[in-house]
């Protein structure tokens, strides 16, 4: 399978505090990767570093995406190259409707004019698939949305912007069982052999409708164990204690 | 006229803070004033004799001297809406020459009125656009006033506005302030009647050397009266904004509630934002809230927008527009909303 993302010896700090301490990770097209770990292990830092959040400083190592070194690239350039991040706490953008926001974002990322009628049709279809009330298309982005609606909006954006790599940062946190199932099904519909998904999670619920190819355990800024889907069950049963000594 | 003191704080604070008032002189006083266009039901619009006394003779406006001169010289209109009537009045102020006008609105009981102010145009020479609005809103009447200021950069813009609310009167004021070089806005709202309600929202956007000097006084006299002030905007270059907001609860205003909030986005380190929320209270059983915030663009918001492909500049534009847009969207007239939005986009 073609290599999509390669992270080599990545060290990242936030406000002079070292969070990631040498991460190596390769994601190929068509794969689903899961990163699990204790609170504060550095899972969200990994997501932010891949997306290029300027608040996170890369001290060492490199990030290569689709054969290109993107370690120094601006956030929007990474987005245009095909990286998408679903936020743990999506912000609200009052004054800009969901429809306008996603349409403008799609036009910006693809560099092509997005036809209004075709877009409306696609938006409605994707919203229906996510059981997302279509009247929300005319509401301001995330303004007055519940936690579940915000997460659905993230998955809606992902499915329309159609990135090569989708990073889901705790997308399942704070969601009820039904919402997790809808989000999980949405990710399942999005995933194909030409793209890849990196799921950062605490729980296994989001994985019920997805079959991860690789599961990584991140403890204290390091990936201490990589395995297949069975590792999720193992962690669920025994917790992280056995891995803490490996960090 | 020499230097005047505008928008004086009702209760002065320490002088060394230099925020008790704003000194300025009137621009283009010697010029002849041009008329304005008032559109609406002719049967309710009449000329008001020059020099007619104020609805509230104690009202001093942004500056008492400037206001007195205005009353003695300005063309004036009296718009009297009968009880239970429903009317829409449009006022167009063209800033291509000096303006001195006065509008007195008497809103009958149970009437439902919308007033639209649209200000645009630019004069070759620096001059002054000055007008007084007075609203007497009788019992159970509803008034919405939507103002869009897209004046040119040579203009000094002074608005004096006084409102008297009777029992259960319901007033909503919406300002979109984008134009004018030096803006003095003075609003005094007198909540006299029981259970009357007023909401005043102001969105502003300043750049270059633009100045927005806003004073708002909500005087609660009636029981269970309600007021809410919300000013929000963004400043870039060397623009300056001063907001003096006063909630004054007088004896007898039992179970009244007032709130004021001022939010300012600072886009450059050279801008200046002053916020002075003042709470005065002579009544025990009231609720008064105030909040003021001034800050730079939230880094997390910027990151979120850039992660959707927008460049840093595009994302900043989006943040500023998203701040002001909800107020523009309430204007309700597509042509005016588009004009306001275009003006906002051209400035950021």
Keywords, please?
heterodimer, A: 247 residues, alpha/beta, Rossmann fold, 6-stranded mixed beta sheet, 4-stranded antiparallel beta sheet, 8 helices, 30% strand, B: 348 residues, mainly beta, 9-stranded mixed beta sheet, 14% helix, globular
- How is the largest sheet of chain A built, in terms of strand order? 6-9-10-3-11-12
Instruction: Give the low-pLDDT segments of chain B.
Output: none
Main beta sheet of chain B, described? 9 strands, mixed
Largest interface: A-B, 27 and 26 residues
Compressed to H and E, one letter per element, the order of chain A equals EEEHEEHEEHHEHEHEEEHH
Helix/strand-derived class of chain B? mainly beta
Structural class of chain A: alpha/beta
Q: From the alpha-carbon coordinates, what is the Rg of chain B to the nearest angstrom?
A: 20 Å
Q: Name the CATH superfamily assignment of the domain at 3-91 and 163-244 in chain A.
A: P-loop containing nucleotide triphosphate hydrolases
Strand percentage of chain B, roughly?
over 45%
CATH level-two architecture of the domain at 3-91 and 163-244 in chain A: 3-Layer(aba) Sandwich
Helix percent of chain B reads 10-25%
- Arithmetic mean pLDDT of chain A: 93
Number of E strands of chain B: 20
The coarse overall form of chain A would be: globular
């Amino acid at each position: 399978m073609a290599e999509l993302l390669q992270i080599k010896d990545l060290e990242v700090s936030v406000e002079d505090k070292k969070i990631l301490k040498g991460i190596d990770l390769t994601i190929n097209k068509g794969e689903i990767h899961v990163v699990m770990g204790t609170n504060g292990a550095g899972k969200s830092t990994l997501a932010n570093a891949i997306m290029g959040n300027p608040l996170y400083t890369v001290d060492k190592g490199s990030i290569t995406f689709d054969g290109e070194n993107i370690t120094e690239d601006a956030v929007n350039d990474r987005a245009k190259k095909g990286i998408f991040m679903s936020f743990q706490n999506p912000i609200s953008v009052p004054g800009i409707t969901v429809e306008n926001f996603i349409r403008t974002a799609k036009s910006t990322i693809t560099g092509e004019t997005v036809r209004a009628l075709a877009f409306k049709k696609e938006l409605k279809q994707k919203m229906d698939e996510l059981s997302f009330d279509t009247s929300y298309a005319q509401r301001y982005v995330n303004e007055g949305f519940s936690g579940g609606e915000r997460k659905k909006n993230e998955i809606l954006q992902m499915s329309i912007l159609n990135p090569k790599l989708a990073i889901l940062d705790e997308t399942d946190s704070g969601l009820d069982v039904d919402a997790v199932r809808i989000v999980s099904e949405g990710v399942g519909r999005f995933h194909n052999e030409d793209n890849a998904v990196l799921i950062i999670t605490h729980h296994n619920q989001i994985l019920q409708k997805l079959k991860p190819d690789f599961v990584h355990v991140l403890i204290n800024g390091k990936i201490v164990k990589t395995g297949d889907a069975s590792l999720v069950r193992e962690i669920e049963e025994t917790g992280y204690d056995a891995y803490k000594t490996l960090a | 006229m020499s230097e005047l003191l505008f928008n004086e704080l009702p209760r002065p604070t320490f002088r060394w803070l230099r925020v008790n008032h704003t000194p300025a002189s009137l621009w283009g006083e010697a010029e002849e004033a041009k008329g304005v266009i008032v559109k609406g039901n002719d049967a309710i619009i009449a000329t008001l004799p020059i020099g007619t006394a104020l609805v509230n003779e104690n009202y001093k406006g942004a500056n008492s001297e400037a206001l007195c001169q205005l009353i003695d010289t300005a063309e004036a209109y009296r718009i009297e809406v009968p009880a239970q009537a429903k009317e829409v009045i449009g006022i167009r102020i063209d800033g291509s020459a000096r303006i001195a006008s006065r509008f007195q609105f008497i809103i009958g009981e149970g009437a439902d009125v919308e007033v639209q102010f649209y200000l645009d145009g630019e004069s070759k020479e620096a001059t002054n656009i000055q007008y007084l609005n007075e609203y007497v809103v009788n019992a159970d009447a509803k008034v919405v006033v939507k103002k869009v200021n897209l004046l040119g950069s040579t203009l000094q813009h002074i608005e004096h506005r006084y409102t008297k609310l009777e029992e259960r009167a319901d007033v909503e004021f919406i300002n979109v302030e984008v134009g004018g070089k030096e803006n003095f806005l003075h609003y005094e709202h007198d909540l006299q009647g029981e259970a009357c309600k007023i909401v005043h929202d102001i969105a502003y956007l300043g750049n270059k050397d633009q100045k927005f000097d806003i004073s708002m006084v909500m005087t609660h006299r009636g029981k269970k009266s309600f007021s809410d002030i919300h000013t929000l905007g963004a400043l870039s270059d060397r623009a300056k904004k001063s907001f003096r907001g006063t909630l004054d609860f007088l004896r007898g205003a039992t179970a009244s509630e007032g709130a004021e909030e001022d939010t300012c986005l600072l886009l450059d380190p050279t801008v200046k934002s002053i916020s002075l929320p003042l709470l005065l209270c002579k009544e025990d059983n009231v609720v008064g809230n105030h909040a003021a915030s001034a800050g730079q663009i939230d880094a997390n918001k910027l990151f979120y927008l850039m992660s959707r492909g927008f460049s840093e500049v595009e994302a900043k534009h989006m943040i500023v527009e998203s701040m002001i847009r909800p107020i523009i969207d309430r204007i309700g007239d597509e042509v005016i909303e588009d004009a306001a939005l275009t003006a906002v986009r051209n400035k950021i």
